[in-house]
Design brief:
The complex is a heterodimer of chains A (325) and B (431). Chain A contains 9 helices and 11 strands. In chain A, helix 1 packs parallel to helix 2, helix 6 runs parallel beside helix 9 and helix 7 crosses helix 9. The longest helix of chain A has 23 residues. Chain A starts with a strand and ends in a 33-residue tail after the last helix. With 431 residues, chain B is α/β, with parallel strands linked by helices. Chain B has a domain of 173 residues: TIM Barrel (Alpha-Beta Barrel), CATH 3.20.20. In chain B, a hairpin with a 4-residue loop joins strand 2 and strand 3. In chain B, helix 1 runs parallel beside helix 2, helix 7 runs parallel beside helix 8 and helix 8 packs parallel to helix 13. Classes of the chains: A alpha/beta (325), B alpha/beta (431). At the A-B interface, loops of A face helix 9 of B. The structure holds iron/sulfur cluster (4 copies). The site of one iron/sulfur cluster (SF4) has 9 residues of chain B, from helix 12.
Chain lengths: 325, 431
């Protein structure tokens, strides 16, 4: 069931997720289009999330945006300091020059990074975790992950897990999506684009998520005629044969990556699964460390949790009886 | 295979490397399952996209005379497959040659097969003594000297199916010569003359008949005609495409009833088989236990003249009406395992609409992944096309009639219990 509407306010709005940053010239969503989209969101009880361009919006836009319940997704490079101060999600593309950056309390930060930068910047990230409440690491080149990176990725995660244990120990339950989400979750918590979440783009059309905006052929309706998602069942987890039996609940299950790698929105590429399971296993080791260090109490939800470490990536697709690997 | 009753003894015919189960003279002939069914890898060379015929129902919308496989590409395919033995673990292999008409490229095929045999031997490959070369041909140049030399050389490892659609008027309705334009010229006479030679070389050979809307009135006469030619096994498929007109289902049912009466009343069921009648079709299917995919796409590998790999030929550009081809790799870079994942994890329930999940007669109702993809509203293999729905339901009604009548007959002859004991409840026939 649809719950969220993402509105990309401008063609140039930076990416907050796996897909690349826009290369388009700035072009705002027409005010009338925005109004129609928001009206619909109110009628259908959708929570709205706005993705902003880096420049400051005209006043009439700010007023319209303010008329609905919403959350703001903003790049750290935004020229609008007021917006930046109030935004729920702040997107960072580089860890350079963040030594003195003041991470606001209670805010979620998204770090979009390549896999190699992530591995290189393990030290920098370890310095940031004590100063941040929540960090989502989002990889921009999942397709490049290969088996030769497995060991290094697992090691990098274990190092970060050590920092997290230390932070818990000093009463700072930092959240790092790659490691803490899986142990805090009770069920699958994926992106769910196309099922729970749909995106309105500046051309007045709906897309499964902003990543699909690169080609208007991907549109799934428009503000005048409403939504028209064909084969909507394929965006639901019960129609995703590999994922529905998977226990890597923190996985984004990115349907855009799925389509790029396997041509099917409901089937993940191997890279996503392998990375996610290395995270899942590192999360299991983190939980064990927290337990051994007797510091579970900080987040009551962790009491009684178990998450078995499964060496050898024994997850859905690798034990698939139909021979899929 | 002939199922005989009681006192079974098994004899191996070394020449044909086939098991023949012999017994008393009373039995029901069942459809053969393919060689090493389910245990073999199927590797298909699309050696040419050319054909002498222009059959009206042919799904190959992009046939042409230009795309012929070269020896260089063919050799690369063989090297790739044999180099990657770990990737191809199936215990045996079927090297399949299709077209267009494969025998148009007999010289290339001969060279390919020689190379495969030599290489499997040289590498001590686990397929060395477990392979078949398989052909689906229109039969027109079956008696060509080069084709015959090839057959002689490889007879122990060959399966050849000649497509003949039935009586002359039925066959010539669809299977016409290319370029025969205004005055359509049928190909029946050019094929039927080769049937005796084919049956002499492959006495247990079967033929495949494809039924489209216009063919329905000729089904019964055609099957009986094929029996009369000595073909003991007739496999019939109704096309998966959305071609069916109002009333076609009733006509189909009528034809099958006529055929059922003939087969039973004249006792053909003892020695001849027709895939339309099977006692395992027309039952509800369990969502968990009967959730497997039907078609072999993804488990097989097809390769075209450009060296591109496909999960099945049906996903190559020349087979598709409205979708992009699904290329899962090529001879140089190998197979992209990610692109195979959807095929290998696809199951019945995930691709079926609710009416098929709840269907009371679902067993034996087939689909073709390629047609599903071609007909789907989005670029997906996960949307099952149900264009054959009413035809399957008609088949089930006639099939129920057939088995009720046959069982009653066997019972009155005191042979029903024997049949129940020996009969294999074979599942759905795969493509
Ligand atoms: S589908 Fe979801 S996870 Fe993937 S790019 Fe779009 S929003 Fe991000
Ligand atoms: S790890 Fe793979 S199988 Fe599991 S939810 Fe993520 S994409 Fe799906
Ligand atoms: S297509 Fe029709 S006959 Fe076949 S399973 Fe679906 S509902 Fe049943
Ligand atoms: S049913 Fe269709 S897609 Fe499947 S193997 Fe046969 S031709 Fe290929």
């Amino acid at each position: 069931m649809l719950k969220y509407l993402i509105v990309q306010l401008d063609d140039s709005a930076p990416s907050f997720c796996h897909y690349p940053d826009s290369e388009r010239e700035p072009k705002l969503i027409p005010l009338d289009t925005l109004r129609k989209g928001l009206l619909r969101s109110m009628k259908e009880n959708l929570t709205v999330q706005f993705i902003y361009p880096d420049y400051e919006l005209p006043n009439e836009y700010a007023a319209l945006i303010d008329s609905v319940y919403h959350a703001d997704i903003v790049s750290v490079k935004s020229e609008n300091s007021g917006l930046l101060a109030g935004a729920e999600v702040i997107v960072i593309n580089s860890l350079e020059n963040l030594e003195n950056f003041k991470f606001a309390e209670g805010k979620a930060y998204v770090w979009r990074t390549s896999i190699s930068d992530f591995l290189k910047n393990n030290g920098k990230l370890s310095m940031i975790l004590p100063r941040i409440d929540r960090l989502n690491v989002v990889f921009t080149d999942v397709a490049n992950f290969n088996d030769s990176l497995k060991v290094n990725y697992a090691k990098a995660l274990d190092k970060l897990a050590e920092v997290i244990v230390a932070e818990y120990d000093r009463q700072h339950p930092v959240q790092l999506n790659l490691l803490t989400d899986r142990i805090l979750l009770d069920e699958m918590n994926n992106c769910n684009a196309g099922d729970e979440c749909i995106t309105l783009c500046p051309d007045g059309r709906y897309y499964i998520c902003p990543a699909f905006y690169s080609d208007s052929k991907n549109a799934v309706g428009d503000v005048n005629n409403g939504l028209n998602v064909k084969n909507p069942q394929l965006y639901r987890i019960n129609h995703a044969p590999i994922c529905r039996t998977c226990d890597a609940w923190q996985c984004r299950r990115c349907v855009w990556l799925n389509r790029n790698l396997t041509l099917e929105v409901n089937t993940p590429g191997r890279q996503q699964c392998v990375m996610t399971h290395l995270e899942r296993n590192a999360s299991a080791r983190l939980l064990e460390n927290l337990r051994n260090n007797k510091i579970l109490g900080l987040t009551k939800v962790l009491y009684g949790r178990t998450l078995l470490y499964l060496p050898g990536l024994l997850f859905g697709f690798e034990k698939c009886g139909r021979g899929c690997k | 295979m002939i199922i005989r009753f009681s006192k079974l003894s098994i004899m191996t015919n070394l020449e044909n490397r086939k098991e023949i189960i012999m017994e008393e003279e009373i039995g029901i002939k069942e459809n053969e399952r393919g060689w090493q069914d389910g245990m073999s890898k199927n590797i298909t060379f699309i050696v040419t996209k050319d054909c002498q015929l222009a059959c009206k129902y042919c799904y190959l919308v992009g046939k042409n005379e230009k795309e012929r496989m070269t020896w260089q590409v063919a050799k690369k395919v063989i090297d790739y497959v044999l180099d990657n033995e770990k990737q191809f673990k199936e215990q045996s292999v079927i090297w399949d040659f299709i077209g267009g008409e494969p025998f148009l490229e007999i010289e290339l095929i001969d060279k390919i097969c020689d190379y495969i045999k030599t290489e499997m031997f040289r590498r001590n490959h686990h397929w060395f003594d477990s392979y078949r070369f398989s052909f689906s041909t229109n039969g027109i140049n079956y008696d060509d000297k080069r084709v015959q030399r090839f057959i002689e050389k490889n007879i122990d490892h060959l399966s050849i199916g000649i497509t003949i659609d039935g009586t002359k008027r039925k066959h010539d309705l669809n299977r016409i010569w290319k370029g025969s334009g205004g005055e359509e010229q049928g190909s029946y006479d050019d094929v039927v003359r080769n049937i005796p030679l084919w049956l002499k070389q492959f006495p247990d050979a079967s033929t495949k008949v494809t039924i489209s809307s216009a063919d329905i009135p000729y089904i019964s006469e055609s099957v009986l005609h094929l029996y009369s030619l000595g073909i003991k096994e007739v496999n019939i498929n109704v096309v998966f495409e959305d071609v069916w007109k109002d009333g076609d289902d009733n006509l189909f049912e009528e034809q099958l009833m006529i055929l059922a009466d003939e087969i039973i009343d004249k006792g053909y069921y003892k020695d001849y088989a027709c895939s339309l009648f099977s006692d395992s079709i027309g039952k509800p299917l369990d969502a968990a236990l009967d959730n497997q995919n039907w078609c072999g796409a993804g488990k097989m590998l097809s390769v075209d003249a450009a060296g591109n790999f496909y999960p099945c030929t049906r996903f190559a550009a020349y087979s598709l009406r409205s979708k992009r081809p699904v290329i899962i790799g090529n001879v140089t870079e190998g197979i992209d395992e990610n692109l195979l994942r959807p095929f290998l994890t696809l199951d019945r329930i995930t691709q079926s609409p609710q009416e098929c999940i709840d269907c009371e007669v679902a067993s034996g109702c087939a689909w073709c992944q390629g047609e599903n993809y071609d007909a789907a509203e989005t670029d997906t293999i996960y949307q099952r096309s149900t264009a054959i729905c009413k035809m399957h339901k008609a088949r089930v009604r006639a099939n129920n009639y057939y088995w009720n009548k046959l069982y009653r007959k066997l019972e009155s002859e005191g042979k029903r219990n024997d049949y129940d004991t020996v009969s294999k409840k074979s599942g759905s026939q795969s493509c």
